[in-house]
Amino acid sequence: MKLVNLVFTALLVLSMLSCSSPKEQSMEEETPKAPYQLMTVDPGHFHAGLIQKTHLKDLDTVAYVFAPEGHHLKRVNSYNSREDNPTRWVEEVYLGPDFFEKMIQEKPGNIMLVAGSNAKKTQFIKQAVESGINVLADKPMAINAQDFEMLKEAFALAEQNKVFLYDIMTERFEVTIFIQRMLSQMPELFGELEQGSIDQPAITKESVHHFFKYVSDVPLKRPAWFFDVNQQGEGLVDVMVHLLDMIQWECYPEQIIDYETDIEVLDAKSWATELTPSMFERITQLKEYPAYLSKDIIKDSVLNVFSNGEINYTLKGTHAKTSVIWNYEAPEGAKDTHYSIMRGTKANLIIKQGKEENYKATLYVERAGDGSSEEFITSVNQAINNLQATHPGITMEQNGSNFQIVIPDKYKVGHEAHFNQVATKYLNYLKAGKMPDWEVPNMLAKYYTSTRAYAMSRK
């Protein structure tokens, strides 16, 4: 296999060896490989790099990259060269149009990480598990009904070949969402989840994202294909997967969801965000639109990106609503934001991240139902005491009849750190040789919901 090494990493390793004694060198040479080796395939999305932002126990520091081009290496190299807690990745790289075929042929590792164009992602996933390779995939794993059918086959092949297929659901580790889930499981405070209606869903998740933003303190350069719905997928099937996953994970924790009987998509719609040529250039650093985007050009030069969407559906009879919005750039001081409400018979659990919250995710508890204020305050106090067992330092502040759950900053590790947490959980599943029974059917459930909604929005 023709390999291209990261120059910086190679020099770093040589420098370390030159400063060590022969005995130390011998010990290093005899150090066995870690049990898992990463093979990153087509890392067109920056999420691929974030998996390697910090060292992962049981994952070998020698990692393999198979890609059509090498932009991914710059991000990994920045982690190796930073002053604070640098990583020690040694990247062995194959670049070429046949990158995927080469990976399947050589198989130098046992985990495929895929985070790039979604046009062939499902196909890559299926072929990898068919070849006996574990897969950790960035969302989405399917962007249309055809992909969903292929994904079902991939999960069946993974089970047959005893390998694990898993997607990267970072939002499960966002602390306000995690605490919202915990509070919803305290019947003395929350009561029971309402059934809701299409006009007033029992649970709503709304997510606002931005095309231009900073990642690891560097302006994010997005590839042009990110704006092609045939390659990236529409908003209904991309970020929406996170919201669908959170609703399943919060409303019916650790319960198996059967997409054939438990889910009904009621309606879905999508709409576009318009980008001018100057906006597109700032985001992609390209002065012209690629030919494959010509189908989406309106008003002579404005790019129409169908990145926004809304789904109304029922999950085990519970009415739910999800919506995703993509804007060009966030207001000053703002980042991607999340809004959520879970309606209970005794209380509503609300996450806001607007200007009033200084664009920081904040969790509120709102009294619902017919209980007295005194009973409600007692229930909130008891809930705070219960949370202390797992999250010491959590407190509350009363604001009229509502309460803000005050979460210490030590629990707010940030979105980029969540990738390490997801990868660690995945590696733990591999070491244990099993995943929870609900993980696979619930992955299928959310991709059924997103692809079914996309098909419905086309009609």
How would you summarize what this structure contains?
With 459 residues, this protein is of the alpha/beta class. 35% of the residues lie in helices and 25% in strands.
What's the topology here?
Layout lengths: L3 E2 L1 H12 L3 H9 L7 E4 L5 H4 L11 E6 L4 H10 L8 E6 L3 H8 L4 E4 L6 H10 L3 E4 L7 H17 L3 E3 L7 H10 L2 H4 L12 E10 L1 E2 L2 E2 L20 H12 L7 H4 E13 L1 H8 L12 E2 L3 E14 L2 E12 L7 E7 L3 E6 L9 E6 L5 H15 L7 E5 L2 E5 L8 H18 L6 H20 L1
Parallel strand pairs: 2-3, 2-5, 3-4, 5-6, 6-7, 8-14
Antiparallel strand pairs: 1-4, 8-15, 9-10, 11-13, 12-13, 13-14, 15-16, 16-17, 17-19, 18-19
Helix pairs in contact: 6-7, 7-15, 8-10, 10-15
Question: Could you please describe the fold and organization of this structure?
Answer:
The chain is an alpha/beta fold and 459 residues long. The chain folds into two domains: 4-168, NAD(P)-binding Rossmann-like Domain (Rossmann fold, 3-Layer(aba) Sandwich), CATH 3.40.50.720; 171-458, 2-Layer Sandwich (Dihydrodipicolinate Reductase, domain 2). It is 35% helix and 25% strand. The protein is built from 15 helices and 19 strands. It has helices at 7-18, 22-30, 47-50, 72-81, 99-106, 121-130, 145-161, 175-184, 187-190, 240-251, 259-262, 277-284, 373-387, 415-432, 439-458, and strands spanning 4-5, 38-41, 62-67, 90-95, 111-114, 134-137, 165-167, 203-212, 214-215, 218-219, 263-275, 297-298, 302-315, 318-329, 337-343, 347-352, 362-367, 395-399, 402-406. The strands form three sheets. Strands 8, 11, 12, 13, 14, 15, 16, 17, 18 and 19 form a ten-stranded mixed sheet that branches. A seven-stranded mixed sheet has the order 1-4-3-2-5-6-7. It has a two-stranded antiparallel ribbon with strand order 9-10. It is globular. Mean pLDDT is 91; it is low at 1-30.
